[in-house]
Design brief:
The chain is of the alpha+beta class. Among the domains are: 28 residues; 149 residues, Jelly Rolls. Helix content is 37%, strand content 31%. It has one helix and eleven strands; from the N terminus they run αβββββββββββ. β4 and β5 form a beta hairpin. Receptor for TNFRSF25 and TNFRSF6B. Mediates activation of NF-kappa-B. Inhibits vascular endothelial growth and angiogenesis (in vitro). Promotes activation of caspases and apoptosis. Promotes splenocyte alloactivation. This is Tumor necrosis factor ligand superfamily member 15. Keywords: Cytokine, Disulfide bond, Glycoprotein, Membrane, Signal-anchor, Transmembrane, Transmembrane helix. It is a single-pass type II membrane protein.
Length: 259
């Protein structure tokens, strides 16, 4: 049977040895533990510092990828739209060039000299066809008061005639005095064709001038579309050629162009 005292002494001896051993190894263990703790802190610090850098790098890569995709989409849309735009632009340019080749003319007023005119027909006006604003292009021809149509088609024909007068009111003319202020002024655009013996009136404009003051000034404009044939001739007739204002080319003019 073991002695209880002997067991207690052995136990106490072992505890003392253990405490002594711990006392001798304590500073080294604490140093090792401190080194490990410092390493962990450094690792955590590096991780925390690298986290914003990694986040910024990731965001930059994502933005770069989205930007590249956006540029590809824009380039694709441009490639899709460019053929359509090119075709429409080409059609517009072709149409514009076609218009440039169509017959057209714009004639301006010159000083008129009274001439003999046909019976039952007003005097026809002379025109300037080369100088200033006047022109004839693409085979449109002006000759002897007539604008000659070079090809069949639909034409817009127009004219503005400006009249001037400097006498008293209508109906108050003394015997023996010439009346320079008529009751009305008349403008007619006339067509002459070889297939029809009589001239035909395309447009007619009339304006009463009795209510206008003594020094009066009155423009009359006419314009419309007509189907004309090659060789048709156009002229402008007025009721009183001496009242036509020929001072400025933008006041009295005549023209036509193929539509």
């Amino acid at each position: 049977m073991a002695d209880p005292e002997l067991g207690f002494a052995e136990t106490a001896s072992m505890e003392m040895l253990s405490a002594e051993s711990c006392g001798r190894g304590g500073p080294k263990a604490r140093a090792q533990l401190g080194a490990r703790s410092q390493g962990v802190r450094c690792l955590l610090t590096c991780c925390l510092l690298s986290l914003p850098i990694l986040t910024a790098l990731t965001a930059y890569l994502l933005v770069s990828q989205l930007w590249a995709q956006g540029e590809d989409c824009v380039q694709f849309q441009q490639n899709v739209r460019e053929p359509r735009f090119g075709l429409s632009h080409q059609r517009a340019y072709t149409s514009l060039r076609g218009d440039r080749d169509k017959p057209r003319a714009h004639l301006t007023v010159v000083k008129q000299t009274p001439t003999q005119h046909l019976k039952n027909q007003f005097p026809a006006l002379h025109w300037e066809h080369e100088l200033g604003l006047a022109f004839t292009k693409n085979r449109m021809n002006y000759t002897n008061k007539f604008l000659v149509i070079p090809e069949s088609g639909d034409y817009f024909v127009y004219s503005q005639i400006t009249f001037r007068g400097t006498t008293s009111a209508c109906g108050n003319i003394s015997p023996g005095r010439q009346q320079n202020k008529p009751d009305s002024i008349i403008v007619v655009i006339t067509k002459v064709t070889d297939s029809y013996p009589e001239p035909s009136q395309l447009l007619t404009g009339t304006k009463s001038v009795c209510e206008i003051s003594s020094n009066w000034f009155q423009p009359l404009y006419l314009g419309a579309m007509f189907s004309l044939q090659e060789g048709d001739k156009l002229m402008v007739n007025v009721s009183n050629i001496s009242l036509v204002d020929y001072t400025k080319e933008d006041k009295t003019f005549f023209g036509a162009f193929l539509l």
